[in-house]
Amino acid sequence: MTNGLIYLLITTGTFIFMEGVAWFTHKFVMHGLLWVLHKDHHQKKPHFFEKNDFFFLIFAAPSILLFFFGAEARFNWMFYVGLGILLYGIAYFIIHDVVIHQRFKWFSRSNNTYIKTIKRAHKMHHKHLDRHQGESFGMLFAARKYWQQSQKKQR
Predict the structure, then answer these.
(1) Where does the chain have alpha helices with state H?
(2) How many CA atoms lie within 13 A of 37 on its CB side?
(3) Is 90 exceeded by the pLDDT of residue 137?
(4) Residue 9 DSSP label
(5) Long-range contacts, stretch 134-139, CB < 8 angstroms, 24+ apart
(6) Cβ(107)–Cβ(97) below 8 Å
(7) For 2-52, how does the pLDDT look when each residue is reduced to its tens digit (9 = 90+)?
C-alpha cells in the first residue's frame, strides 16, 4: 500500500470516527459537565454568538496540535489525523450552523432527503430545552427512524 493511500485511509477513518466522538461529547460532556457552555444553544432565541461556540475551539485544539507535530515529523500519520478532524469540523459547521440553524443564509432551501433527515433529527434534539431526556446527539449520521420519516413525507 502506498503512503498516499494509507494517509487517505487515516484521514477518512478519522473523519468517520469523529462522528462518534461528537456524539459521545455531545451526550456526556455538553449535556453533562459542560452544560454551562452548551445551555444557551438550547434557548428558544439564541444570540448569533453563543457560549456553545467555544466547543469549536475545544475541538480545534487537537487538530492544530496534530497538524503541528505531524508536519514537524515529516508529515507523518499525526498530520492526517489532524486533517480528518479539520474536515469533520468543516462539515459539522456547514451542516449544523449553516444548513440546520441558518446562522448564515447560504443554503436556505433544500429538497434533499439527507438534509431534511438531519434537520428532522436535530429538531427532535432541540425539542428538549434542558440537559436531560435528549435524543439524536449525532450530527452527520441520523437514526433510521428519521430517514423513514423523511421518506414518508416525500411520498
Answers:
(1) 3-25, 35-38, 54-72, 77-92, 113-126, 144-154
(2) 14
(3) no
(4) H
(5) 134/27, 134/31, 137/23, 137/26, 137/27, 137/31, 138/19, 138/22, 138/23, 138/26, 139/19, 139/22, 139/23, 139/26, 139/92, 139/95, 139/96
(6) no
(7) 999 999 999 999 999 999 999 999 989 999 999 998 888 887 766 778 888
Tens digits of per-residue pLDDT, 64-112? 999 999 999 999 999 999 999 999 999 999 998 888 888 887 776 778 8
Cell matching residue 15? 473523519
Residue 136 contacts residue 147 (beta carbons within 8 Å):
no
Rounded to whole angstroms, the Cα distance separating 8 from 83 reads 10
Q: Which three cell numbers stand for residue 36?
A: 454551562
- Asked whether 100 and 118 are in contact (CB, 8 A), the reply is yes
Length of the chain: 155
